[in-house]
Every structure is written in structure tokens, then in C-alpha cells.
């Protein structure tokens, strides 16, 4: 069977940075061509840098992207790379809003899919290669029929990360291969943009759905694979409505075959932790920051955020601040200091008492308002420091605290980004323990202090709440699954707990959208 | 022709308050029956209290609403009102999410529209009355055909307010009447829920599209009308698939005809101001507050918010606070005091210097961070006061400041609700002038100080910006209409202004969703 050397480049683009994203395409195309690739693919939305569903790009950006695509084809040609066909996903404006379509760049020209139904089929070295975008993995009927006779379906995707989503995507790709009776290659973005992260994990399966090659998760890079593909069976017009012939003659056998990579799969907690690191790294770099500020209160949330931040950009650029008052426990300050010692982040202390006293002297507050005031003052001081020093302020509140409107969130929720916005407290604890175990297994210092882990079940707060395992299960059922109070009681939650927690969640519901964004999981 | 006395009750429901909303139906049905109404209608989502598109009610609330509807029918019967047919819109869960449908309550029973296509037609006093919901004003084909022979289409609507939307709705109703060849009555919600307000404006048009009766905007009440309608022409099975016969005999001629009301129409600014008042009143009452706290900085935003708050709940429950520092101008404080004198709101002053000094002593801040710190401290103090005293804190920032991320928004944006979130600065000024003129015309004290109006064009801010007229036009084009930079320059905006303003808007874009909700206009 004819062979084809395919390069799937899972790159980390930046929304709106057309020149920078075009540079990435040129650089990685050269890298792939140097390694003998005969077909080079990039993910969806390569030039705009984020899929249409995530960003709703403005009309002028769509126009600029169209021009940039033409320039990119010309530039590849002028830099001697025009002979290697390049496929990348593009966001284009249509009547009913922006949509993705695959584009083929070859010898200085651009071929995009016509508006009519069905994939573009490219004949390359005698093999028919059909081009699709992520959404086409679910197309059927006429669209699927148009693949008949194709040797390979090449999908340029941008699949936002979701917990366990990689396995579901693999199954979808395998199903598609078996239904179409051809090999399927799927290239994905990696990196993050605002609340979304993309986990790479590009892959190739054969016509039976068996995995031939699979790229690492959350890493930029090129997955090379030599594919044995059936020769095209139809005449030069080929299958489908949109057929382009680049070359009929079979490719020369590769001098030295490449070993197709099969990256190790991350386990569940490793994957979630990697997503958090990816999100913080992207949020920092893509907003022009080189350092991070984080308030350390000795608790599990801020310790985990600090560990993630250090893993994302390095300890020397992570600045921790404690804001002690006369009532702050020595243990909390010791935990914060221990976090700094373990991770190497830069720690300082700003005593809050003078500010707090000035406020409470001027105001006659209730206990709850006093608690909230202190939390807000912490946030205000952190924001002022971050602004003065030009650092990204990370909020340390987690999903549990945000969902019930825990008083501390007024301070912990101050920031440009909240890595744990979508992480319940019990998951935060599991992630911290996993991260410590991973460090220990590598002979490194675990970043989260032991005392922070053992004290993580303590429930501060102004009124009694159930243990976090119960609280998180209850919030998941009530907020995420929409279960009503009687159903919750039926599931075994104590009635008075249901009443108290749903009341808190209802009261906090209206402010939930006002918290900083955080990586979706 | 047979006559029918119709009562359109435009009521102010509360989301989730099934018993309270049912009480409203009973009270207004009795009121209508006492006045001889033979058909009584209520808006969409009467029991749940907010249309499905606005709230996405949970499954358990939909279940509870279905039970409440059955109980309501039984209660009307047991209270002697079962003989008067009552039509109200209900939100019901369907396969593809919650949807509105009209329900008919009569003699203790509930009739809802079957899932199949087409309106329910009720024969009442020999007239065929078709029942529809707001979305049905746009149905055509089979649905419209099913109306043939009906004397009246009765629409139970919930149309969120949009500037000028009342006129568009009138035209839609008139078009529908002419297309269906029958009279159309349309009853709407009034009042507010979160960011939405509903403007009432219930109306009846004849088969030629001429207005027979129209209710006031933004007022709860009952629109009564005696309608002359053609007798049903088909047999007892009637037109359409879903036909119910209540009575074939013509209604007795009314002893004393009612004069159909035609409420005065508000002009554009009056309508927008009324929407703001409606939104603040609803936000206060429906969240269990009886008083409002607002920070007064002497500017147009806080003066307008104070005027709206006083109009919404009365001056004695509106508490203004100034937060002077050593650098606050005497004029700003005088403006705030003048606002209090003119409106009668309760004013107090909390000097900010001790708090501010405590912060700046502890931190070494840049000028911009210092400005932001001061703004955030103002917000923090206001929030603490509002919490301690149990008042609703209104944010005073306007759409212009929020859109460019004006430093002052860090303080002005603190609050549970931002009445001016969707009001550009120039519109705020026009609204304030309109409100003053309306007061003068009534011989009342205009609420907004003259000096606040004349100084409203001053542009504070850390860097030079164009006059507000230009700034707002530019932001409207860039943010609301999606025009690109080159298009903006093409429209005549100076290039350096375009560059500066779009940069500010882009930088503020990621935090815009984090501001408090405000009435949509």
C-alpha cells in the first residue's frame, strides 16, 4: 500500500495574535518538512487562535484572518515550504455565525471547503485524503458517504478539555474510522485561552479503529506517523463533490521509518492538575504577565494555587503574601511559611491590623459584616500590590466556597483568575495529595505542607456546615444536577442540612457569575 | 355580533413564589369577575413568575408549578370563581427544555395545550377564542391556518422590556390580527426580575389591526374591554385539532358597557427612566430588602441612581453616604448634600482618610494603584455598611465607565445591583435632565443638582479621553456593533482616539461580566 508520512502539530496558539500564530505554522511546517512529512496538519482556529464557540470573534477579526491565511500560503511558498501540503482549521464568518472549516495550503494557494455539503478530498501520492473539522466527527448520511474510497480522514480539531474527555474523543474517532472504513487522524490544540484549556492528545487510528499513534496531553509538539493507506480507487475526479489532485504517483518509501509515538496516558488527578497548570500558564503569558501574586492564608486552597502557580511559571516569579491580623493563628502563618519553603516562592507579610482598625473604628459593624470586611480588605490590599508590581493576582477560592458564598470568598475571590473556580474543596484536597505523592515519587519536596492537608477538613465559617464530603456531594446534586430539596432528602441527606445548604447556595447564586474566571474541567 | 367582556390582568409576579403568584391570580380573577368579565387572562409564566428564557427553572420547580396549577384551578372553583374561564401562561418542561404554553382553568379543571401543533380553541358564548403564547405571534403555516374561524386570538405573553420594544410588539400584534383575520388580545407581565423588566402595555386590536384598548406601561392593573366578536361558524367540533366548548349561547348584553382604556404612551426617555425605577424597585422588594444604600460622589451617575432609588422606594428608605478624603473637592460634597436636600434621602459621611492612610502607609503604590485602592476601599466600606444595616447596595457606575474599565468603577461597581450597567454616560445625563424637567413641569423640586448636570461633561480619569458624546458613540460602534478599528477610522473617529479607546475596552472586556447585574434596556 502507498505510504504517507503525516505530521500532526498540536500547537499552542493565542487568540487574536494572527502574526504570532502564522509564525508557529511556518516554524512547525519547516520542522515537519525537515523530517520528511508529506502532509502537515494544524488544529482548528489556528490563525485566530481559539475556536469560534469559545470566543465569537468579531467580523473584522474574521476578515483579518482571511487575509492572513492568503499571506500565510504565500509565505510558506516563498520560504520554500510550498511543496508540502498544509492543512489547518479556519474560523470563517457564515450567514448563521462563525464556523470552522478546513483549509489546504499548497504552492502558495489556499483551498477552503466550499459552502456545499461534504468534505474536501485531496489526492496526495495516489491516496484520497478527506479533510474535516471537529464537528464532522458527528456528521453522517451524505457527509459520511462522501468519504467512501478515501484512505484517510484528517480532522483539524480544537476540543476544549473536559475531565475524561480524551477517552470519549478517542471512542468517537474510532467509531468514525469504523463507520467510514478509513484511517482517521485528529489533531488538537494544546494550551489555554481564558477559561478553556486544550489537552493536545492528537491521535491516529487505522480503519479498524486501532490506535496507531497518540501524542502527549497538554504538550506542544509534532506527532509523526508513517501510514500505510489504500490507493485511491476512483478516477482522477475522485469521490465527493470537491476533489483536488496534488499527486497521483506513490511516495518513495521512507529511507528510515519513524516510530509512531504512543504517549503515556495521565491518570485522572494528574490530568486535572495538568489542566490547572496549563490554565494558569496561559492566563499569565497570554495577558502579558511574567509573575503571579497570591495571598496565602495557610489553607488548602491557597496552598494548591501556589503549587499550581509554581509549576506553571517557576517559583522565582510567584510572590506569596500573608495578611496577618492580631487574631490570625500562628499555625496559619507557619503553614504559609512552610509553603514558601517547600516551593521556593517569594513570601512577604503585610500586617492588616492598621487598615482593619481604621475601618472598624469608623464603622459600627455586625460580626458577619466584620468578617466580610476583613476578607474584602485582604482582597483590596492584594489587588493594590498586584497592580503596583504588575503581577497577575490569582484568587484562591474554590468552587465549594464560591457556591455557598462563604464569607472568606470576598477576599479570596479577588483576582483576575481563580484556578479553583470549578474545583470542589474535596477535589482540591485530592489534587494536593496527588501532587505531593508525585513529588515524593520523584524524590522531590512535596509542595503542600502536611499540616495544611491534615487541617483541610476543618470547617471555619460563621454557621455549622456538614463535612466537606457531604457538602460537595450535596452541592453537586443541587447545583450541577438540579435535584430539588425533596429529592435530596430522598437521597439520604439530612433535611436540616439540605435546608441550610440550599439556602446558602440560593443566596449566593446571583453573585456566582461575578467571580473571576477559572479553568473549566 | 356577540359581545365578550375580556379582562387582561398585567400583574407583577415573583420568580419561584408559587403561593404568592397564585394569590395574585385569585385576587385579580375576583376583581375581574366582580366587574362582569367573561374571560380573564394572565401573562406567561404566571405561577413560576419569570419566563423560561430568562430563568431556566429547575426540574423540581417545574414539577411544583404543575401541581400548583391544579391546586389553583381547584381553589378558584372552591372560592366561587370556577365559572369564569381563566387563561394563563405556564412554563412546562419538555424534551428540549422548558417551554411556555397557555393553560385554561374552568370549573376546577386544567386544560393545557397538547404537545401537537396548533392552538387550543375555546368556544365561549358562541365565539371561538384561540389561545397562544408570546412566541406564537411569529408562528405561521399550519398554526396560523388553525385560527381560521376564530373570533379572537388571546396571547399570554411575557415580553422583556427593550427600548422601543412596545412599538415593535404593537406592530407584530397588528400584523398577526390582519394575517389571521381576527381580533388579537395580548397580556404582558409587568414589574422586574433580576436584569429583566416587563413593561405591561397589554393591548387589544381588532381584526383590521386597529387598537381597541391599551394598558399603561410599567403598572400593575386590569385592562377591561367589551369586544364585539363574530360568532363561530363551524360546528361544535370547531376549527383546529384542540377544541373545547364552554358555552354556545351568546352572552347577555352588558348592563353598562365599559369604556376601553387607552393609556397615554411614554416618550423615549420617560420609558427608559420608568424601566430603571421598575428594575430597582423589583430588585429591592424581591430580594427581601426594604431600604437602599448608595455612595454619593457628587457625579451624575450617583445622582441619577439616587433619584431612581427615591422614585422606586421613597426617600426615607434611601441612605446616601459620602466618603470624603482630604483631596475630595468641596463641590463634590456640596453636590451630594444638594442631592440629599432635593430628594429627601438620608445622608451621612464616613471620612475615608484614616483607612486610606493605613493602607498607603503599609504599601508603596503607584499612582494608578493608589487611585484603584481608594475606589476599592470606598466599595469595601459601603459593602460593610450595607451588610451591617441590611440594605441593598446599589452600584453607581455606568456603562461607559464599565466598558473602558474606568478606575473609579472599582468602587462604584461594588454593589448587588448596578441600575446604570446598560446606560451609557450620555444617556444618563439625558435621563437626569428629563427627570428634572418632569419634576419642574409638575411643580416639584428637580432631584438632580444643577451643578452636577453642568459638570457632567468633565472627564476625570488618568489619561485623556474624548468628550463623552464621542466616547459613547465610539464604544457603541466598537463593542455593541462589532466595528473594527479601520472601520471606526473610516466613520470619522480620530485614529489615535480609536487606538486609545479600543485598547481600554479590550483590557476591560474580560472583567465586564463580573460587574453587578443591571436592568436591560
From TrEMBL, chains A, B:
GO molecular function: NAD+ synthase activity
Family designation: In the C-terminal section; belongs to the NAD synthetase family. Belongs to the NAD synthetase family.
Top-level division of the source organism's lineage: Bacteria
InterPro entries given in the database record: C-N_Hydrolase, C-N_Hydrolase_sf, Gln-dep_NAD_synthase, NAD/GMP_synthase, NAD_synthase, Rossmann-like_a/b/a_fold
PROSITE patterns: CN_HYDROLASE (PS50263)
Gene coding for it: nadE
Assigned keywords, A-Z: ATP-binding, Ligase, NAD, Nucleotide-binding
EC number annotated for this UniProt entry: 6.3.5.1
Native source organism of the sequence: Streptacidiphilus monticola
Keyword Ligase attached: yes
Protein's UniProt name: Glutamine-dependent NAD(+) synthetase
UniProt region (Disordered), positions on chain: 442-464
Recorded catalytic activity of this chain's protein: deamido-NAD(+) + L-glutamine + ATP + H2O = L-glutamate + AMP + diphosphate + NAD(+) + H(+)
Amino acid at each position: 500500500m502507498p505510504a504517507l508520512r503525516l505530521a500532526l502539530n498540536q500547537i499552542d496558539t493565542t487568540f487574536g495574535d494572527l502574526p504570532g500564530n502564522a509564525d508557529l505554522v511556518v516554524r512547525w511546517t519547516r520542522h515537519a518538512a525537515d523530517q520528511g512529512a508529506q502532509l502537515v496538519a494544524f488544529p482548528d482556529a489556528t490563525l485566530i487562535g481559539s475556536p469560534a464557540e469559545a470566543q465569537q470573534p468579531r467580523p473584522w477579526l474574521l476578515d483579518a484572518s482571511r487575509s492572513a491565511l492568503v499571506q500565510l500560503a504565500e509565505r510558506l511558498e516563498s520560504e520554500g515550504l510550498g511543496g508540502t501540503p498544509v492543512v489547518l482549521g479556519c474560523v470563517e464568518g457564515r450567514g448563521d455565525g462563525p464556523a470552522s472549516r478546513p483549509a489546504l495550503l499548497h504552492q502558495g494557494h489556499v483551498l477552503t471547503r466550499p459552502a456545499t455539503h461534504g468534505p474536501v478530498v485531496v489526492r496526495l501520492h495516489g491516496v484520497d485524503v478527506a479533510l474535516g473539522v471537529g464537528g464532522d466527527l458527528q456528521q453522517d448520511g451524505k457527509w459520511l458517504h462522501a468519504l467512501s474510497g478515501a484512505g484517510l480522514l484528517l480532522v483539524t480539531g480544537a476540543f476544549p478539555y473536559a475531565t475524561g474527555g480524551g477517552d470519549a474523543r478517542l471512542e468517537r474517532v474510532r467509531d468514525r474510522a469504523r463507520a467510514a472504513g478509513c484511517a482517521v487522524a485528529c489533531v488538537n490544540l494544546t494550551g489555554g485561552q481564558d477559561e478553556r484549556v486544550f489537552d493536545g492528545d492528537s491521535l491516529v487510528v487505522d480503519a479498524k479503529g486501532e490506535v496507531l499513534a497518540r501524542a502527549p496531553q497538554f504538550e506542544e509538539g509534532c506527532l509523526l506517523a508513517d501510514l500505510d493507506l489504500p490507493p485511491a480507487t476512483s478516477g482522477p475526479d475522485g469521490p465527493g463533490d470537491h476533489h483536488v489532485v496534488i499527486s497521483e504517483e506513490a511516495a518513495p518509501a521512507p529511507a528510515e521509518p519513524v516510530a509512531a509515538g504512543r504517549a503515556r496516558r495521565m491518570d485522572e488527578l494528574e490530568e486535572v492538575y495538568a489542566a490547572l497548570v496549563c490554565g494558569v500558564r496561559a492566563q499569565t503569558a497570554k495577558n502579558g504577565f511574567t509573575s503571579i501574586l497570591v495571598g496565602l492564608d495557610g489553607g488548602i486552597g491557597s496552598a494548591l494555587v501556589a503549587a499550581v502557580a509554581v509549576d506553571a511559571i517557576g517559583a522565582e516569579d510567584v510572590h506569596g503574601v500573608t495578611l496577618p491580623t492580631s487574631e490570625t493563628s500562628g499555625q496559619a502563618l507557619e503553614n504559609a511559611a512552610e509553603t514558601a519553603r517547600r516551593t521556593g516562592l517569594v513570601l512577604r507579610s503585610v500586617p492588616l491590623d492598621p487598615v482593619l482598625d481604621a475601618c472598624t473604628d469608623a464603622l459600627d459593624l455586625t460580626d458577619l459584616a466584620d468578617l466580610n470586611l476583613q476578607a474584602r480588605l485582604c482582597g483590596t490590599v492584594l489587588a493594590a500590590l498586584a497592580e503596583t508590581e504588575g503581577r497577575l493576582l490569582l484568587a484562591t477560592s474554590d468552587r465549594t466556597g464560591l457556591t455557598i458564598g462563604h464569607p472568606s470568598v470576598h477576599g479570596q475571590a479577588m483576582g483576575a483568575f481563580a484556578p479553583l473556580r470549578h474545583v470542589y474543596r474535596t477535589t482540591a484536597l485530592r489534587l494536593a495529595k496527588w501532587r505531593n505523592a508525585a513529588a515524593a515519587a520523584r524524590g522531590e519536596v512535596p509542595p503542600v505542607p502536611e499540616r495544611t492537608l491534615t487541617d483541610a477538613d476543618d470547617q471555619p465559617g460563621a454557621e455549622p456546615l456538614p463535612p466537606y464530603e457531604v457538602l460537595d456531594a450535596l452541592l453537586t446534586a443541587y447545583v450541577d444536577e438540579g435535584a430539588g430539596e425533596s429529592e435530596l432528602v430522598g437521597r439520604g441527606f439530612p433535611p436540616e442540612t439540605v435546608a441550610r445548604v440550599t439556602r446558602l447556595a440560593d443566596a449566593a447564586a446571583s453573585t456566582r457569575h461575578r467571580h473571576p474566571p477559572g479553568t473549566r474541567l
